[in-house]
């Protein structure tokens, strides 16, 4: 286990993020954008629509498989986060708070997504996944929580992208820190 942690966190001093954190960032971005876009599309389609049926099967698979990677990313973030540092500037504290809000909303989306499943299902056709919520009212509450969490996440992602753009336009190329090479 120690060898894995050393590999995970080893990086040149000139890099603010390890390759592992960068890889997990872009994996997260891809999964979240896919699930968000297809989720909003599905919400506009009637229940019997074949595109909706495929997405309704695919998205729980993708997002459930994503959960361990998200937890890994969250653990690495919490281990390195400056939120506990007393000398952090106001801008650093604001950025840390925004990132914590992103992590909290992603967590809420993933958890509520599991709780809104209306029937047992199989992950990759192999691993049985139980229905966690029973009853019409409880399922509706889970759906409502999921939709609220998705909207909060969409807002936070928009704010995140706007902040990145503002930094880039202001001459602070922070996006460079998330480059693979």
Automatic annotation (TrEMBL):
Sorted alphabetically, the Gene Ontology cellular component annotations on this record are: plasma membrane
Molecular function as annotated in GO? electron transfer activity; heme binding; metal ion binding
Q: Locate the coiled-coil region(s) and give their ranges.
A: none
SUPFAM superfamilies assigned = Transmembrane di-heme cytochromes (SSF81342)
Asked whether the UniProt record includes Transport among its keywords, one would answer yes
The answer to whether the entry has keyword Transmembrane is yes
Similarity section:
Belongs to the cytochrome b561 family.
Q: What is this protein called?
A: Cytochrome b561
The species is Acidocella aromatica
